[in-house]
Amino acid sequence: MKSFSFIFALLSLPFCIANTQDAVHKQLVELAVAGNGVIKLDPKSFDLITSPKRNWSAAIQLTALDKRRRCLPCNDFDPSFNAVAKAWATTSKKNRDNHFFATLDFDDGQVVFQKLGLTSAPVVQVYPAVEGPRAPANGKVAPIPYDFSSGYEASTLAEAMSRYTPVVIPYSDPIDWARYSTFAAGLLAFTVMLRFIAPILQSRWTWATISIGLSLIMTSGYMFVRIRGSPYAAQDGSWIAGGYQNQYGQEVSVIAFIYGLLAFAFLMLIMVIPYQMSPNRQRLQVYLWTGVIMIIYSILISIFRVKNRGYPFKLFL
Amino acid sequence: MPEAYPLPSNLSSATVTNTASLLRIVTLALISGAAIASRLFAVINFESIIHEFDPWFNYRATRVLATKGFYEFWNWFDPTAWYPLGRVVGGTVYPGLMATSGVIYNLLHALNLPVDIRNVCVLLAPGFSALTAWATYMFTKEMKDPSAGLLAAAFIGIVPGYISRSVAGSYDNEAIAIFLLMFTFYCWIKALKQGSALFGTVAAVFYFYMVAAWGGYVFITNMIPLHALVLILMGRFSNRLYAAYSSWYAIGTLASMQVPFVGFQPVKTSEHMAALAVFGLLQIVAFAQLVRSHVSSQQFQKLLFIGVVAIGILGAAAFGIMTLKGWIAPWTGRFYSLWDTGYAKKYIPIIASVSEHQPTAWPSFFMDLQFLIFLFPAGVVVCFRQLRDEHLFVIIYAVMASYFAGVMVRLMLTLTPVVCVASAVALSTLLDTYIDPTEPEINDDTVSESGASTASAPAPGANGTSHPTTPKKTKKAVPPPQSTSALGQIIAASRSSNNKPRPKGIFGADTRLMVVFNAMCLLAFFVFHCTWVTSSAYSSPSVVLASTNPDGSQHIIDDFREAYYWLRQNTQEDSVVLSWWDYGYQIAGMADRPTLVDNNTWNNTHIATVGKVMASSEEVAYPILRKHDVQYILVIFGGLLGYSGDDINKFLWMVRIAQGIWPDEVQEPSFFTPRGEYKVDDQASPTMRNSMMYKMSYYRFAELFGGNAATDRVRQQQLPKVGPTLDYVDEAFTSENWIVRIYEVKKEDPLGRDHKSANAFSQGKKRKRTKPAQRRRAIL
C-alpha cells in the first residue's frame, strides 16, 4: 500500500507541475492582455515567466525608465518595444499565447539585475521555450541577448524577434502622416507659387548657389558625419576630433565656411574687382582679398596640422 | 591705351602663334615627365614590385595572358581559387587592363625589346598617367582655352588624389580607367559641340574600352545621360545633342555588351536604365521637334505636346512595372549603398567591411586635393558665368562627384579630374585677368597717376605653368585696344565677341604682381605638398613594409613574402590554404597555393564559412576545416610589431559576416566584454578567448616576453601570462616579426580519438572522471 501510494505520487508529480505551469501560463496570458501585449514584471513574476519548465518563449526588456536613472537609450527604445509587443498582441490567440513580451524596470527589480549581472540598460533577452513542441532542436535554452548594434528601431527589433516567435510578428511602421502631409503641402505650395518663383528657378545664380553649397558641404565631410553619426562636438566642448580619419559635426560647418570664404575671395578677384573702375578702390580690394586668401589659407593649414600631426608644412600661422 | 608693362612689338603674329604652340608641346611633355617621375617613388624606395592585393591577381592573369595567349586567358578556369568551387576567370573579370599590358608586352617583344611582363605591369600606371594628363588637357581646352588645359594637365599629373591609385606597381583597373574616363568625356564634349557622329562613335569606342577595364564605367553611363537630360530640360535640345547622344548610346551599349562580365546588364539592370530612358526621351523630343517644324496648326501642337508627355509617363510607368516584376534587376548592392548609406552595413557587411568603402572625412579631401579643393567651387562659378553646353557638364560632374567622394573614399578618384579641370579654369581666368597688360580707361576723375608706373613691371609667369605670350581669351572684355604690336592684335581678335561689354581691367603693376605672386606661391606649395604626400603616404607597396632604424636608416620588413615563399617551398602544390579573403590574391600570386576565398568576393557564404572557422572554437572549426580539405591556416598578427592592419582588428567583420549566415552559432555581442569593449586581455570574453583567431594569433606569444607581461602593441593591452593552447592545429611557420603565422591542420587521430584527449593523453594527463557517464537511466 505504501509503495503504491509512493508510485502514485511519483506518477502524479508531473501532472502537478503541469498544472502549476498551466496556471502560471494562464496568469501570464491575462497579464499580457491587461498590459496591451506587454507584461510588467517584478522579481517574482520574472521568476515565473523564466521558469525552467516553461513551454512558452518570452522576450524580456530590462530597462530603467525612471528620469532619475538618466537612461536616454532606455526611453528611446521603450516605445519601439511596446509597438512590437502591441503588434504581436494582434496575432491569433493560439500563436499569441506561446510567446510573451515583458518588461522589467530597474526600480522594480534590482535583484534581478544583480542576479543577471547586468550593469547597463536597456537589454532585451529572449528566453526560448524549454519544454513542449517549441523547445529549440539544438537544446540551447540559455537567454539570447538582442544585439542593439543595428539601432533602436521597432522594425529591426520586430525582424529580429520574429526568429523566436511561432509566426512572424505582423509589425509595420506606422504611416508617417505628418511627413506625407508636409510633403503634399510643400508640393502644393510649390505649384501655386511656381509662377512667382519661376524667375528664381530660372536664374543660373540660384543653381550656382545650390551647386556650390552642395559641393562645399560634401567636401567638408558631411556624409562622414551622417553615416558615422559623429556628435556635433565632443563632450568637453572641443570641436576638432583627434585623428586623421575622424571628425565632428562642427568641423563640417567650419571647414565648409573656410572653403567657401577662400573660393569667394578668388571669385572677387576674378569676377568683381576687374569691373571696379576706380584705381584706388580696386587696389585696396586686390590687397584686401589677397590678404584674406593668405590668412585664411594659413588658418586652414594650421587646422589640418591638428588633424594630421605629421604634416611638415605651415604658412604664416 | 595704357599698358601696365611693355610688350615686345617687333614680333609677327605667326612667330607668336608658333612659339605658343611649341611652348604648349614642351610644357605638356614636361608635365608628362613630372607625372611619370612622381609615381616612381615606390620603385626607388622599395623595388619593382606589384603592390597591395587586387594587383596581384591582375598580375597573375596578365602572366597567363602573356605566356599562353589570349584564348587561353579567355577560357581560363582557375581551380585553385575558391576551393573547391573554382572560378571562371575569363567571364568574371574586366579584361581591359590585362589586354592592355598584353598588347604592350607583345609590341615590345616584336620590337626585340625583351622586357619582363612584371615591369610592364609595374610601369603601366605611371605611363597611363601621362596619357591622363594629355586627355585632361584636351578636355579643359574645350572648356576654356589651352592655357587652362595646361594648368589642368599639370594638376592631374601630380595631384595625390590620382597618384594614390596610380603609383608604379599599383597595377589595378583604375590605373588605365581615369585616362579612359577623361578621354571619353572629351570625345563626348567634342561630339556635342560639333554634332559629330564621328566623335560620338569615338566616345563609344572609348566607352567600350572603359567598360572592359573598370566597373566604374557606370559613372559614365549615368553622367552623359544626366548631362543630356539637363540640356533637354533647359530647352537646349539641338540636333547636335541628338546626333552625339544617339551615336554614343547605340554603339557604346552594343559594344559594352560584348564584354562577357557585363553581358546583358546594359538592358537589364537599373544602373543602366537612365541611359536607355534618356535615349528614348531624345527620340520623342526629336520627333516632336521634327513635327513642329512641319506643322503649323496650334491645336496639333498642343496635341503633340500632350502626346509626348503621355508617352513619357507611359515609358516611366513601364520601367516601374518592369522593375517591380523583376525583369529589370534592381540596383546592385554596391550602387544602392551609395544612395541609402545605411544599407550596406545592415545587409551586405562584406561591402561595408572594405576600408575603401568608408565615408570620407575632410582631412582626406584636403590631403588628396590641397588648394584645389577650395579653388574648384570658384571654377564652377566661372562655368556658370558662361554656361555653354559643355560647362553644364563640368557643373553636374562636380556636384555628383563631390557627393560620391563624400560617401566612399575610393570615389575620390572620380572627383579628382573634375576638381583639376574646374580649378584650372578658375586659376587660368585669374591669371588671364591679372597678366593682361592692358589697362582700362580711368572713369574716375579723382584718380591721379596711379596706373602709370610701368617701368618696374616684370613679366611674371616665366615658369612652366603659364606663359604670358599665349593669346588669352577673355570673353567680356574691354573694347579692342588700339595696340600696334602683334600680341595686341591677337588679344584684340580674341575679344570681339561682345558688342557692348562693361569696361573692365586692372590698374597698376603692383596689384598684378601681388595676385600673380600669390598664385605662384599657392602653386609652389601645392608641388611641395604633392611630393610629400606621394613619397610618404601613397608609395608603400603594403607587401613590403618599411620602418626607420634609430639611426634614421630604412629598415625593410619583408614578412609577407618570407611567409608566402615558405608556403611555396615547403608545402605540397595542392595543399589548400585558408586565410581571410584579403590575402587570397597574394597567396595565389606569391605562394601559388589554392585558397578558399579571395578578394573577388563573389560568394558570401564561402567567406562566411571562413569567418565561422575563425570565430568558432577548435572543436567546431575542425570538422569544417577537414571537410574543405584545408591543410594550412594563415593569420596576420601585428601585435609584436604594432602593425595595425592585422586579423584581430578585422576579426569583428569576420564575426559579422559569419553571423549573417549563421545567426544562431556566431553572435557578435559574445565577443565583447560584459561592458561592451573589444578586448584581448584578461577580461576578454570566453568566446573570444576560445576562438580560433584569438588562439592562433596569441599562441606562444607570452613566451616571447620571458615571464614579463606580454603586451599587444596594436591594441595596447596586456595579455594573460598563460597563453592559449592548440589541439587541432600545429604551428608550422611564424615569420621574422610574427606578422604572418601559418598553422597546419592535423589529420584525424589514427586511434579515432578527438585531438583534445589525444593531446591530453600524450602529455600524460589523466582523463578527468568527475562524473560517470550516464549510461543507465531509471526508466519509469
TrEMBL record, chain A:
Task: State the signal peptide span.
Answer: 1-18
Chain segments annotated as transmembrane: 205-225, 254-274, 286-306
Task: Name the Pfam families for this protein.
Answer: OST3_OST6
Keyword Nucleotide-binding included in the entry's annotation: no
- Tell me, what is an example of a GO biological process annotation in this record? protein N-linked glycosylation via asparagine
Keywords (A to Z) from UniProt: Endoplasmic reticulum, Membrane, Signal, Transferase, Transmembrane, Transmembrane helix
Q: Summarize the protein's role.
A: Subunit of the oligosaccharyl transferase (OST) complex that catalyzes the initial transfer of a defined glycan (Glc(3)Man(9)GlcNAc(2) in eukaryotes) from the lipid carrier dolichol-pyrophosphate to an asparagine residue within an Asn-X-Ser/Thr consensus motif in nascent polypeptide chains, the first step in protein N-glycosylation. N-glycosylation occurs cotranslationally and the complex associates with the Sec61 complex at the channel-forming translocon complex that mediates protein translocation across the endoplasmic reticulum (ER). All subunits are required for a maximal enzyme activity.
Protein name from the UniProt record: Oligosaccharyl transferase subunit OST3/OST6 family
The family database entries (InterPro entries) matched by this protein are listed as: OligosaccharylTrfase_OST3/OST6 (IPR021149), Thioredoxin-like_sf (IPR036249)
Cellular compartments annotated: Endoplasmic reticulum membrane
Q: Its Gene Ontology molecular function terms?
A: transferase activity
Q: Which GO terms describe its cellular component?
A: oligosaccharyltransferase complex
Q: Which SUPFAM superfamilies match?
A: Thioredoxin-like
Q: What is its main location?
A: endoplasmic reticulum
What's its membrane topology?
A: Multi-pass membrane protein
Give the family from UniProt: Belongs to the OST3/OST6 family.
Task: Respond yes or no to whether keyword Endoplasmic reticulum is given for this record.
Answer: yes
TrEMBL record, chain B:
Q: Where is the STT3/PglB/AglB core domain?
A: 574-625
What EC number is given for this enzyme? Answer: 2.4.99.18
Q: One GO biological process from the UniProt record?
A: post-translational protein modification
Question: What molecular function does GO assign, one term?
Answer: metal ion binding
> Any idea what this protein is called?
Dolichyl-diphosphooligosaccharide--protein glycosyltransferase subunit STT3
Locations of Low complexity compositional bias? 448-469
Q: Which residues form the Oligosaccharyl transferase STT3 N-terminal domain?
A: 23-422
Q: Name one GO cellular component term.
A: oligosaccharyltransferase complex
Question: Basic residues bias: where?
Answer: 764-780
- What catalytic reaction does the record list? a di-trans,poly-cis-dolichyl diphosphooligosaccharide + L-asparaginyl-[protein] = N(4)-(oligosaccharide-(1->4)-N-acetyl-beta-D-glucosaminyl-(1->4)-N-acetyl-beta-D-glucosaminyl)-L-asparaginyl-[protein] + a di-trans,poly-cis-dolichyl diphosphate + H(+)
What are the transmembrane regions?
21-44, 88-108, 120-140, 146-163, 175-191, 241-261, 273-291, 303-328, 365-384, 391-409
The listed locations are: Endoplasmic reticulum membrane
Q: Does the keyword Transferase apply?
A: yes
Q: In which pathway does it act?
A: Protein modification; protein glycosylation
* Purpose of the protein: Catalytic subunit of the oligosaccharyl transferase (OST) complex that catalyzes the initial transfer of a defined glycan (Glc(3)Man(9)GlcNAc(2) in eukaryotes) from the lipid carrier dolichol-pyrophosphate to an asparagine residue within an Asn-X-Ser/Thr consensus motif in nascent polypeptide chains, the first step in protein N-glycosylation. N-glycosylation occurs cotranslationally and the complex associates with the Sec61 complex at the channel-forming translocon complex that mediates protein translocation across the endoplasmic reticulum (ER).
Family that this chain belongs to: Belongs to the STT3 family.
